[in-house]
Amino acid sequence: MLKLTPENYYSIETDWDYMSFSQFKNFEECEAKELARLKGEWEPTKKKSTSTADPLILGNYVHSYFESKDAHEAFIEENKKELLSSRGATKGKLKASYKLAKEIITSLNADDMFAYFYKPGDKEVIVTGEIEGIAWKGKLDSLSLKNGFFCDLKTVDDLHKRHWNADERRWVPFVEDRQYHMQMAVYWELSKQTFGKDLAPLMFAASKQSIPDKMAIDFESEEDQQLMREAMDKILANQDRYRKVMMGEVEPKACGRCEYCRINKQLSDFTHASDIEVD
Ligand SMILES: [Zn+2]
Question: What is the whole-number distance in angstroms between the Cα of residue 262 and the centre of ligand 1?
Answer without folding.
Answer: 7
